[in-house]
Amino acid sequence: MPLWFWWDGQDVYFIAGRTIQKARNLASQPFAVVHAGDGDDVVILQGPVEIVREPAQLDLVEGGYRARYVDPGSGARASIHNEGDDCYRVHVRHVMAWAYGTIGNRTDWRFGP
């Protein structure tokens, strides 16, 4: 499902409402696959997921969201601090990438345990 996210170069962050199916799915199986490219130039990140609760980390993610998501008409900036939402962190453990729609030039990277 498409969603807004922020990648700090190590982990991927996104928000989701506590009552939606995505949150229920992550509660029962805390793992995600993030497709950050398009159909030709592909970047796929995979890893375990957790809810971010540390205030300093939430402030860092908020800064990333505000810088990345700006309404071109009004200049309004997105926030992760929305009533009923949680901020999630995907600890990226596997990255797959390929270019020009050719999976034959796929490259994989693995991180962590």
Task: Describe this entry's structure for a reader.
With about 110 residues, the protein is an alpha+beta fold. Helix content is about 20%, strand content about 35%. Strands 1, 2, 3, 4, 5, 6 and 7 form a 7-stranded antiparallel beta sheet that branches. The chain starts with 5 loop residues before the first strand and ends with a strand.
Task: Name some characteristics of this structure.
2 helices; about 110 residues; about 35% strand; seven-stranded antiparallel beta sheet
Can you describe this structure in just a few lines?
The protein is 19% helix and 35% strand. It has 113 residues and is of the alpha+beta class.
Tell me the β content. Answer: 35-45%
Instruction: Please count the beta strands (DSSP E, at least 2 residues each).
Output: 7
Largest sheet: 7 strands, antiparallel
**Basic shape:** globular
Helix-strand pattern, N to C? EEHEEHEEE
Q: Tell me the number of helical segments per DSSP (H or I, 4 or more residues long).
A: 2
Low-confidence stretches: none
Q: Taking all residues together, what is the mean pLDDT? A: 92
Radius of gyration: 15 Å
Termini separation: 27 Å
What's the multimeric state?
single chain
Structural class designation: alpha+beta
Helix content: 10-25%
Mind sketching the topology for me?
Elements: E1 6-7, E2 11-17, H1 21-28, E3 31-35, E4 42-51, H2 55-68, E5 85-91, E6 94-98, E7 107-110
Antiparallel strand pairs: 1-2, 2-5, 3-4, 4-5, 4-6, 6-7
